[in-house]
Amino acid sequence: xxxxxxxKDILKKVKDNEISIDDAVVKLKxxxxxxxxxxxxxNHRSIRQGVSEVIYGEKKTAEQILGIVNSMRENGxxxxxITRIDENKYKKLKDSIDIVYYDKAxxxxxxxxxxxxxxxxIVIAAAGTSDIDICEEAYITASTLGSNVERLYDVGVAGLxxxxxxxxxxxxxxxxxxxxxxxxxxxxxxxxxxxxxVIAVPTSVGYGANFGxxxxxxxxxxxxxxxxxxxNIDNGFGAGYLANMINKMEGINE
Length: 254
Prior knowledge:
single chain; 254 residues; alpha/beta; Rossmann fold; four-stranded mixed sheet; 39% helix; 18% strand
C-alpha cells in the first residue's frame, strides 16, 4: 500500500464489505515504508502513534534531510520536526522546502501548520538561563505536536523564592518538564509540590564534577519525590514528546 491511494483502496474495500473493519485497522497499522536508499521512512506512523516520524538531523547531511522530508511530504505529512540541525543546514534546506528554523532549539519545522489546535497545559521550568536551549527544544516539540506550553525560566533552587512565586502556574499544569544541570535538585523540589507527572531533563551544564550532566542525571534518578521520571541528558525533544503524550491522554482531558 502506498500513500493516500492505498488508504483509499482499503476504505473502499471496507465500504464494499470485502474486508472487515478490524482487518482494515490491521492493514493500516502495517502500511509499508518508503525506501530511498539511505533511509526507510515510516509512512504511517501518525496513524499508529498519532505523530509523524521525527528526523534526527545532527549526523545527516542537508541533502539526506531534504530527501526524507520530500518523501514524507509526498505521503501527506506536515509539521515535520527536524531536530539538532545547525544554521548551515537550515540555509541549505530553506531554498528547497518550506521550513521554519529555531536557532536556540536547533530545530526546524518543515511545512508547518499554524492552525493546529492546542490543548491542555504543559509547564517547562528551567533551573538557569544556561538551560534554556534544551528547554526550547522541549517547547518547540510539545507546542508543534499540539500542546499549550508555558515557560518558567531561571527558577532554580539557588533562589527558591523565584520558583515559589510561580506556584499557581505549576499547580495548574497537566504535566511539568523540569530542566536542570549542576546537581539537578529542581526536579525533586517541583515533584514535591505538584500533583501531576514531572519529567526531569538533566543537562550537561555545570563545572568539572558535573561530568557532562551525569551528576544531574543520577540525582534525578534518585529523586525522593514521587511521580518524577527522567529522560536522557540534554534530551529536550524526548521530554517534550512524552509531555505532549501525557497532556493528550483521554482521561486527563475529560
